[in-house]
Every structure is written in C-alpha cells, then in structure tokens.
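Dear colleagues,

As part of the handover before I leave the project, I'm documenting each prediction I ran so the next person doesn't have to rerun anything. This entry is a single chain, and its sequence is reproduced below.
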Amino acid sequence: MFALPLALLAFAATGLADPTPPALTYLYSVNLTFAAPVEIGSVPTGNRAILTIAGGAFSGPKLNGKVGSGLDWGLTDAKGVFSPDALYTLHTNDNATILVSEKGHAPHVQILFETASTKYAYLNTIVGYATGGPNAAGDIALDVWQIGA
C-alpha cells in the first residue's frame, strides 16, 4: 500500500540533488569576416539581415585552418538580441572540409558539425558551444567548446 508512494518519493528526492554541469573541452577559436550585409528589414519577429561570411581563420589544439564561405540569416529582436542562424565551412590545414551550423541567442551559440573526414569524424556526434561577439575590427570572434566528454 505504501510501496508506490515511497518509490515516487525516493525518485523525486534524487532530482533534488545538485546536478553536475557538463564538462567543456576547448576546440578552437574562430574569427569570421563578413561582406556587406543584405538588409531584409523589419519582419514580424524582428530585424532580419543576410550576412555573407566571406572568410576568416580558426585555430585550436586539434583544428586549424581557414573559414570558407557561408551565410548567417540572423534575426535581431526588439530587445537588440541577435540570434544567429548560420551555415559555413571550415577548411583544415590538412584539407578536410567541415560544415558548421550555428544557432542561438548571442553571445551563446550552439554548434553542430558535419564532415566526411575520418580524422574529424568525432565532430559529427558532438554538440559545440560558442561564446563571443564582435571584435575591434568588426569581425566576429568566437571561442568554441565541446559539451561533454
């Protein structure tokens, strides 16, 4: 008669413990350069612009190279928060190509990767977290981390 309520109480109590935050492993830092934006203007959800990613460079313990082309069709809301929605490529110094997908609410960005490279295949199964923003040159500088081990 008391077994189910006690089991539920025991289950609920385990949720009260402080959760362990995920580990972060540094992947790379990237500098994204842009061509002139195409302003779409005020849309129902904010201000939309198409930002052409024209290049840049990235460097980290296991990943180094140049940024290829891409687009960010981000949205700036009424509070001035920019939400990136970008796709671009990374070209490593050893000739691998990695597709990067970014979404989030700046300065916090979720990153997913796709690559056919066997050397970098681990990127296909991880979630990245990036933080950063505009630098003095007007480019976007991000530090990218792997979430979890």
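The two ends are 43 Å apart (CA to CA). The first strand starts at residue 24 and ends at 34.

All the best with the project,
I.
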